[in-house]
């Protein structure tokens, strides 16, 4: 026993090293799971205060851009409102289910911290549990999709950016309706690869890539980007496609968080089919 | 490319006295790493790389001891030991720190060349900034 203690004491530097590294690895691994890490992230009060301050300075200089985006968004919303009114006029459903009309609930949020240069990029926004923002909800901007909420504090949330190699979003070639997956490769924050488009489809440079709505997180037909480059290797089953993102992630300022009110129903239905997710 | 990062907080570890207790050094590195992690939303990542940094620094300094040894309480400074010595001291440590950081963040080696590019670009950026900081540091009081 004494010799063991002596041994540990002799190599105490190494054991301290091992111990601290284990804590670090445990923290990191735990945080990568969906609900992990409540404390050591940027929803922490001090970090929020500092991030808020730096972003309030940046906000001032970005006002002109922000106003332009907001005006554009207003225009888009009015347009859609009109479309829905028209749609309602011609709705032939014998009974109109109001939940279907109000299926998606929007919350507007301001970005207070953002990055684009890392492999795993995150965005901190100024809405949290008190504002009805919960982990798993979709985040979009007027120009395109942005990411999914990862952790929510009472007043702030951390969003996993679309520019994160761990995020996959089901996407569709709008013109033909064929679906695939977008997943970032960590190279260029302006482009994202669109995978698994079968070779019998004929995509064209400039085609729009939109969301499918399959996961129930993002509503259908939200813009992701347009095709910038198409390659088809000899004998490969799928195209290699580079998509130019509609949203420039380097100037993200205001975003919308979306709650799908019907998601619990979709999830519980899919759970009743035993092999659904295989 | 948008790939060079400047993690000049490692300069704090490089400037620690040569005879600092390695245990205290590692605990300080751990806390410093966690503080950085708070702002990068990567709890544990910078802490891990920093603890490794200080652990290796302890042995690296033993190999690099100049003739006659260090004075007690001396800090490894560029102005005192020369720029060549400083580069030899700082570069490998920063390289290992950045490699651990970026490869862990990428979740392995599947993006090898992109990650390696990031490691090299960031290493050069960080070391350049560290050298500038070393040079503009006001002369020490006598």
What can you tell me about this protein's structure?
- The complex is a heterodimer of chains A (278) and B (142).
- With 278 residues, chain A is α+β, with helices and mostly antiparallel strands.
- Chain A has helices spanning 2-10, 12-32, 45-61, 63-89, 98-101, 263-271; strands at residues 104-114, 120-125, 138-140, 145-152, 157-164, 168-173, 179-183, 191-195, 208-211, 223-231, 240-245, 254-260.
- In chain A, the strands form 2 sheets. In chain A, strands 1-2-5-4-3-12 form a 6-stranded antiparallel barrel. In chain A, strands 6-7-8-11-10-9 form a 6-stranded antiparallel β-barrel.
- The radius of gyration of chain A is 23 Å and the shape is globular.
- With 142 residues, chain B is mainly alpha-helical.
- Chain B has one domain (10-136).
- Chain B is built from 6 helices and no strands.
- The radius of gyration of chain B is 15 Å and the shape is globular.
- The N and C termini of chain B lie far apart (45 Å).
- In chain B, 35% of the residues are buried.
- The interface between A and B is large, with 42 and 33 residues.
